[in-house]
Design a protein that fits this description.
Elements: E1 4-8, H1 9-12, H2 19-29, E2 33-35, H3 43-51, E3 56-57, H4 83-99, E4 104-107, H5 118-139, E5 142-146, H6 162-172, E6 177-182, H7 183-189, H8 193-200, E7 204-209, H9 226-235, E8 241-244, H10 252-264
Parallel strand pairs: 1-2, 1-8, 2-3, 4-5, 5-6, 6-7, 7-8
Helix pairs in contact: 2-10, 4-5, 5-6, 8-9
């Protein structure tokens, strides 16, 4: 069966289209789901508009992560001072995900701490995740720790390699602690994508795509072989979603149709 594919609305939807127009277009292409970045303004509208068209909402970020000085993705599980807040926010997000049949929510490691090894930070992240894991297991919601690159887009981010995040999943050892494997980010950091996803397959709860370089369309003018990668993902038995999170070069609908066809081949 072809992979189930979703569209990350804030990244891909053109400002010239209404939400309804955009959802009608992607439904016509064949997409079965959408994603949002947060539960802030417009979340309920996306839920209602998507469900009325037979589209699922399948992912959103489950906790605050912005630092007023360091920017987005800076504040996560890597700092113990965040654990109380993140646990409370994830509990609320898990309830929302359960209510709307959303299979997984995104969690973030946050930035590295000065003077602290990645292993020490790993222990702190595992400690924080263990606090919320029982509730995620009770409600049947995946907590997908996101991989990001630190070479181009997100300097200082802790969870920037497959070995580290697999170690985190193994350490927490819950069926609800998973990986958001972003193919674009890991192409930049590691390459060797197919071997990596085979090795980490049991822990992967979500995928994101984008072309490299530039985080643009998935066409032939970028270096990632998405047809081969998607065949490899399918071969692992993966049955959740692959979400498109790229900035279209010109025409969003053309780019999404192209991406859908490439990943369905």
């Amino acid at each position: 069966m072809p992979l189930k594919q979703s569209v990350v609305i804030p990244m891909v939807k053109p400002g010239s289209m209404t939400l309804g127009e955009f959802l009608d277009e992607i439904k016509g292409i064949g997409f079965s789901a959408v994603e949002v970045w947060s539960r802030e303004a417009g979340f309920e509208e996306v839920i209602e508009a998507s469900r009325s068209r037979g589209l699922k909402v399948v992912s959103f970020v489950g906790h605050e992560h912005i630092s007023p000085t360091a920017g987005t993705h800076a504040e996560g599980f890597s700092r113990r001072r965040n654990h109380d807040r993140i646990e409370a926010e994830l509990r609320e997000s898990i309830d929302v995900a359960s209510r709307y049949d959303i299979p997984g929510i995104i969690t973030l490691s946050g930035h590295r701490n000065a003077g602290e090894s990645d292993y020490e930070s790993l222990l702190i992240c595992a400690e924080g995740l263990r606090r919320i894991v029982p509730y995620a297991e009770e409600k049947g919601i995946n907590l997908n720790m996101e991989l990001l690159n630190t070479k181009v887009d997100h300097p200082h981010y802790l969870c920037d390699n497959t070995d580290w995040v697999v170690a985190l999943c193994e350490m927490v050892n819950s069926p609800r602690v998973k990986i958001l494997y972003d193919i674009y980010h890991m192409q930049i950091m590691e390459g060797d994508i197919i071997r990596s996803i085979r090795r980490a397959a049991r822990w992967i709860g979500h995928y994101h795509t984008a072309g490299n370089p530039g985080r643009r369309d998935l066409g032939c003018d970028q270096e990632i072989n998405y047809t081969g990668i998607c065949r490899a993902i399918n071969a692992t038995g993966y049955d959740l979603y692959l979400g498109h999170e790229f900035r279209p070069k010109v025409d969003a609908i053309f780019a999404l149709r192209q991406a859908y066809d490439i990943c369905s081949a």
